[in-house]
Design a protein that fits this description.
The complex is a heterodimer. Chain A is mainly β. Chain A contains no helices and eleven strands. The radius of gyration of chain B is 14 Å and the shape is globular. The chains are: A mainly beta, B mainly beta.
Chain lengths: 113, 112
């Protein structure tokens, strides 16, 4: 089944403790991206990647890192999480660019205490 | 990047046809128009995509006028399960920029 898999589904952590949210797709997609969703602010893009080793900033990249060492994986890294990064995170992928059909993961609810 | 504008919310009743319009005045020649549906705490789900004129699939229709500065998602005979947020997105199949900007979306509330 074609899908984007995110883990974990829920995560509670403390300020400053490094964490990684994993994202994997099984569709051989070129484009992958991360979003955060906050009440009243909608979905905002954090980072995106057009291919292996090619990543770029979205609208809200501060405090986040990503890597694209393999085509299928696109982990989101928070090196020193802060409470303002408490949010619902989504990973998505598409065959080509953002204008193509995006497949979203089921989300990761992160709470930073 | 084309910015989109949609109504914040809409109300409807079961069995009615619902039309949600999105404005995208600065759409580029190579941009496609895509609509997504999102339920609370779930990832957005693809509904329909088009470039111009009319596109229809098993769940919706998409109407795009000749100037492509707007588009209308049409949901026939809605049910309670269609209560969700609907997003209109405009973007290319790859290009000079691959950023993506989601608008605020339209919260559709379907009542019995």
């Amino acid at each position: 089944e074609a899908q984007v898999t995110q883990n974990p589904r829920y995560l509670i952590t403390v300020t400053g403790k490094k964490l990684t949210v994993t994202c994997s797709q099984n569709m051989n997609h070129e484009y992958m991206s991360w979003y955060r969703q906050d009440p009243g602010l909608g979905l905002r893009q954090i980072y995106y990647s057009m291919n292996v080793e090619v990543t770029d900033k979205g609208d809200v990249p501060e405090g986040y890192k990503v890597s694209r060492k393999e085509k299928r994986n696109f982990p989101l890294i928070l090196e020193s999480p802060s409470p303002n990064q408490t949010s619902l995170y989504f990973c998505a992928s598409s065959k080509g660019g953002p204008g193509e059909k995006l497949f979203f993961g089921s989300g990761t609810q992160l709470s930073v205490l | 990047l084309a910015k989109t504008t949609q109504p914040i919310s809409m109300d409807s009743y079961e069995g009615q046809e619902v039309n949600i319009t999105c404005s995208h005045n600065n759409i580029a020649t190579n941009d496609y128009i895509t609509w997504y549906q999102q339920f609370p705490s779930q990832g957005p789900r693809f509904i329909i995509q088009g470039y111009k004129t009319k596109v229809t699939n098993e769940v919706a229709s998409l109407f795009i006028p000749a100037d492509r500065k707007s588009s209308t998602l049409s949901l026939p005979r809605v049910s309670l399960s269609d209560t969700a947020v609907y997003y209109c997105l405009v973007g290319p199949y790859g290009g000079a920029t691959n950023k993506l900007i989601f608008g605020t979306g339209t919260l559709l509330a379907v009542q019995p």
